[in-house]
Each structure stands twice: as C-alpha cells, then as structure tokens.
Write a structure and sequence with these properties.
The chain is mainly beta. It is built from five helices and 22 strands.
C-alpha cells in the first residue's frame, strides 16, 4: 500500500480515577456542584492528539457507503455532545444541535475536506448492549460530566449536500451511570456507560472476546472526526500489536472527535477496540495562515500512530450478545 496522508488531531489529556457511581451519588454531586461556584455543562475533555490521515484520506460520509455491514456499524455509533448544545423543539419531537462551522472553528485551509460541515460533538461511542454505550474514559471524566453529556444517534450526512443540525428526540439518550471507567495515559482508556433507557431502532455491536488482533489486520474506524458528522474510515490496519499492553497501535485516519469511536475488524465485524489517542495536530501553513492535515506514512514510521484500547480491557463489563455479527 502506498503512503497515505495521516490527519492529526489534538490530545485529550488523561487523568481521573476508575469510577462506578449510582444515581444517588449523582444527585448528591449535582447538589454540591450547584452550590459551589455554579455547575457548568459538560465541556469537551482536554484534547488527546489524534487528528491524522495516513496516505489517502479514506473518511466517507454515510451517504457514500454501499457496504451494508459498514452502514450497520455507523447506525450503532453515537456522537457525544454537551447537553448545553441540545435544545428540544416546542412540540418535543425534535432536538436541535448547536453546531458551528468546522472549517472556521478549526482555522482550516478552505480546500481541506469537510470544510463546510457542522461541528459540535466532542467524542464518539458505540452501542454494545441494549442500554450500554462504550466510549473512551477521557470522554467522561466524572459522573457529573457523564450526566451533562448526551449520546446522539444519527448525526450523519445521509444525503449529499445535507448539513445535519437536528435529530428526532428519540435518538438522544442520557447517562444513567458509569458502569466501569479506566484512564491510563500509557494503557487502557475506556468507559462503559449505562443509558437512561434501552435503545430503540439501533442494534448493539459485539466485541472480540477471543484472541488478540494480529498485526496487519484490516480495520475500520467509525466516529465523528473533529466533532463533525459521522465518518467511516476503512483501509487502515494494526501496525503495532502491543501484546503486553491494554492497547494496540493502528494507522487510522482519525481526529480528536473520533475518541471513543469503535475500531472494527474488517473481516469479522467485531469491535477490536476504541480509539483513544494519537498523533499531534494539524500543521500550520504559514503562507496561507491556516491549518492543513499532517502527512504520515502508511506504516507510521514518521508518526507515532493511533492508540486503540483493546477489547479485552473492557470485555468483563459488557455482556455477550446472543446473536452473531451480521454481514
């Protein structure tokens, strides 16, 4: 495979203890925060470097996908928004998303891909149970942060030229509890979130519960790079399977909003892990005074690669599904 362009995003700084908290403790926490300095809506966690494209930029919008399996994976993926960025319509049927202009917000050069798309999400996640979402640990650093986040299905471009700024109200879910959370800057980084209700209209995806993924395995990343609508990025592979660690390294075309998004085995359809950290940000074009994607070789030899928390780290907290992945 020839060298591919590698787009780099910002780092989300790890930090925080393992957590499992109940609704009762959440109530206490919210009360305390309400009296101490005024609680704020959840903000995007500090950045983890991830924005990078390897070789060809393989990110595609949903309307460009013809593979049924990839469409199903995208349908099971969520965009994570701060609750403050969502407003319910007067009739209660629609939720309006407060979005910005991706190109201007990021100071991209005008000929960069997806320049005119809306942005607003700060992380990604994936449905792994009837009411369970898997994401990165740094995306929900506390129970309060989880409570002030919304998990949104369907933030995607389903027709060329569309810029989604709203979703049906039923596609928005809240956090009930953090089942399990870990955040190690040099290891596993994940969170299993229980939602406020069972998810309707979307099927959970199964995770790999057997052998570790091998070097060279083809993988697909699903998520919202830089907070824009969901993209499916194929053509990537595992480049360093750190077998003694809680993560492996891949050459996925990924950005900071991809954090928590599923990395799926292209052969089996199983989730091999979630994206958590990676290469440095965009590079600055001094002549045009705007940002461009960083260029990395396909084998990652001139960049660090993208870290993916492997499935074995979070498997104990996710019940197995009764059905096999569908292709």
């Amino acid at each position: 495979m020839r060298d591919r362009e590698f787009v780099v995003a910002r780092n989300i700084k790890p930090g925080g203890d393992l957590m499992k908290e109940t609704g009762k403790s959440l109530s206490v926490l919210l009360i305390l925060l309400g009296f101490i300095g005024g609680a704020q809506a959840a903000k995007p966690p500090v950045d983890f470097d991830i924005d990078v494209v390897y070789g060809d930029d393989n990110r595609l919008d949903v309307f460009e996908i013809t593979d049924n399996a990839q469409l199903r994976w995208a349908d099971s993926t969520v965009s994570v928004f701060s609750a403050s960025k969502l407003t319910t319509s007067d009739d209660g049927k629609t939720v309006v998303l407060k979005t910005g202009h991706h190109g201007r917000n990021t100071r991209l050069c005008t000929n960069e891909r997806f320049y005119d798309q809306p942005d607003g999400a700060f992380c990604s996640g994936v449905l792994v149970g009837k009411d369970l979402v898997l994401t990165a640990g740094h995306c929900v650093e506390s129970m309060f942060g989880c409570f002030m986040s919304k998990f949104v299905f369907g933030f995607s471009v389903k027709k060329q030229g569309d810029n989604p700024v709203s979703v049906p109200a039923g596609e928005v879910y809240s956090c009930r509890e953090i089942v399990k959370r870990e955040q190690d800057n040099h290891g596993a980084d994940f969170a299993v979130i229980r939602l406020d209700r069972s998810v309707a209209g979307h099927e959970p995806l199964e995770i790999n519960r057997s052998v570790q993924v091998e070097n060279g395995t083809k993988i697909v990343l699903v998520g919202g790079p830089s907070g824009i609508p969901l993209k499916i990025a194929s053509g990537a592979r595992v480049i360093d399977n750190k077998k003694d660690k809680g993560f492996f390294v891949a050459n996925t075309d990924s950005f900071h909003g991809n954090s928590g998004g599923p990395v799926i085995n292209a052969y089996t359809g199983l989730i091999e892990g979630v994206l958590v950290r990676g290469e440095d940000d965009y590079v600055f074009d001094p002549a045009l005074r705007c940002k461009r994607n960083r260029i990395c070789k396909d084998d990652g030899s001139n960049c660090r690669g993208e870290d993916v928390t492997r499935a074995s780290a979070f498997a104990p907290w996710i019940p197995a599904l009764t059905a096999k992945p569908l292709f």
